[in-house]
Write a structure and sequence with these properties.
globular, six-stranded antiparallel β-sheet, Heat Shock Protein 90
Length: 339
């Protein structure tokens, strides 16, 4: 969530951990990582135990039933409070009956017996999406104490290429004056130098949030000079209107139901090569989501094969796309905005 007048940005490398769930010991590792993060933030003991139980249950389910399962734990901040988000993604057989799986007390064979429904009850926010044979995504957010959600629903996810701790894909979103803005940068290559380029882009965009996307893009292009450069896309949503400007291969989409329309970036490399900074405008259908993602996700994902995805929360949309369309040999980043 992005609170009124505030912003959302990619967590630092010290504030997030991707954990691959490949063997029986992985659930314990996920639990220990969650507890360490909760202690760092000063969570009360009861809340820490609830978080630990939820993370262990999610990881146990991944080990027992999934293929290519992974868990993300990261610190989130809103309204002066710090919490913890858990995202579990797999490409396994999926959940045939999601309503049953989310019923409190229901548990599949071999897990802790807590059930996904109990995770939903313990978390301040949770959402789940599953298409059998394609992807399952579970997201949950835990605050140390009661914290009502604020602002529009938007979320981003990044995952570095295997072997790197820093990701060259970074995102930003801000909400001010009734306009929801967002940006995603894919720094050229990967590792620390790519992250430096992306960081300069995000600093430029967040520092000119009141400008139109084309003006923000031009500003970021100048500020990225001297870095590796990268692909950058910027969007602003004002009521039912979407304004978009992009350079390079960051994909932009407006998704409403099973319909998907393209937001077109121009050829170039932000920071190095740009012939023009042009802005595209289009209507935003009611209930639609605006999605930006790097080429660490293939653009061949299909809304018809992911039915009902657009109505899920932005965090679960991002997680499902990362699980369904991410390319392992590259950094991956996705930003979802739902006004």
């Amino acid at each position: 969530m992005v609170a009124l007048g505030q912003w959302l940005a990619t967590p630092g490398a010290d504030d997030m951990r991707w954990l691959h769930v490949a063997d029986v010991s992985a659930a314990g590792g996920c639990r220990r990582a969650a507890v360490a993060m909760a202690h760092r933030l000063g969570f009360p003991a009861t809340r820490t135990e609830q978080l630990a139980l939820a993370v262990t249950e999610a990881a146990s389910n991944l080990y027992k039933h999934a293929r290519e399962g992974s868990v993300l734990l990261r610190i989130c901040r809103e309204g002066g409070m710090s919490g913890i988000e858990m995202v579990a993604i797999d490409t396994g057989p999926g959940v045939a009956n999601l309503a049953d799986a989310l019923r409190d007390g229901h548990s599949t064979a071999g897990t802790l017996g807590v059930g996904l429904g109990a995770i939903r009850r313990m978390a301040d926010f949770s959402d789940m999406y599953s298409v059998p044979g394609r992807v399952t995504a579970l997201a949950a957010r835990f605050w140390p104490r009661a914290h009502p959600p604020e602002g529009p629903d938007c979320a981003g996810l990044t995952r570095p290429i295997t072997g790197e701790t820093e990701c060259g894909d970074m995102y930003w979103a801000g909400y001010s004056g009734g306009v929801l803005s967002g940006a995603l940068c894919d720094g050229l290559g990967h590792g620390p130098l790519a992250a430096t380029a992306a960081r300069e882009a995000i600093a430029a965009v967040s520092g000119s949030a009141a400008s139109e996307p084309a003006a923000q893009l031009e500003r970021a292009h100048r500020q990225m000079a001297g870095t590796r450069g990268g692909a950058l896309a910027i969007v602003a949503i004002d009521g039912s209107n979407v304004a978009f400007a992009g350079l390079g291969n960051v994909a932009g989409w407006v998704v409403a139901g099973e319909a998907r329309s393209t937001l077109v970036s121009r050829p170039g490399i932000a920071g190095h090569q740009a012939r023009a900074f042009r802005q595209q405008e289009c209507p935003l259908p009611a209930g639609a989501a605006v999605i930006l993602h790097s080429d660490g996700l293939t653009s061949r994902w299909d809304t018809r094969s992911l039915p009902g995805l657009a109505v899920r929360s932005s965090l679960v949309i991002a997680a499902a796309l990362l699980g369904n369309a991410a390319v392992r040999r590259d950094d991956a980043g996705v930003l979802v905005l739902k006004p």
